[in-house]
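Entry for zinc ion complex. Fields follow.
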Amino acid sequence: MDAARLREALVERGAVLEGHFRLSSGRHSDRFVQKFRILEEPKLVAPVAQAIAARFAAERPTIVVSAAVGGIVLGYEVARALGLRAIFAEKEAGVPVLRRGFALGPEDRALVVEDVVTTGGSVREVLELVRAHGATCVGVGAIVARSRPDFGVRFEALLEMPIESFEAEACPLCARGAPIIDPGSRRA
Ligand SMILES: [Zn+2]
C-alpha cells in the first residue's frame, strides 16, 4: 500500500480529518488523526500491517512489541504477517511493563510498532522496556508519523504527516473565519 493510497483510505474512513481543530495543547491545526478509525477496520489494518512487516522482514525480527491500547491491534496483525508472537506493554503506576507472562529475552530481536507517532514518547518507553529485558530492537514501524523523532534505530512510517499547528492568535484558519472543531471525547 503506497502512501497516496493509504492517505486516501484514511481520509475516506474519517481517520484523517481535514478542517480546523483545537489540539489538546490548545494550538490550532488543519488536520487531526483519529487512529481508531483505522484500528477498528480489519480490512484496513491487515494491508497496513503487511506493509510494515514487509519493511522489516529482512531484519529477521523474532517478536513484535507494542504499547497498549492501540498498539495491541496493530502489533497483532504485524506479527501475523511475519509469523511471530505479539506482546504488549501496559502501564503499571505510570510505567510500562510486560504482564500476563509475556516473555522477552536477550535472544530476541524485537520489532516495535506504533499506530501514530506524534512526540514518540510511548515508543521510547517501549524501546527502554525492550532493552531492559536485554533484547535487541531491529526498528520501529508506524502507520503515520506526525514527526520524525530520533529513536536510535531504524524508523519507518507508511505515511508522513507532519503536524502543522498554530497559536490561536496566529492561526490562518481563524483569520479566514473558519469554524473550529474540538475533537474532545473523540480524541484517540
Ligand atoms: Zn484557528
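NOTE: The two ends are 24 Å apart (CA to CA).
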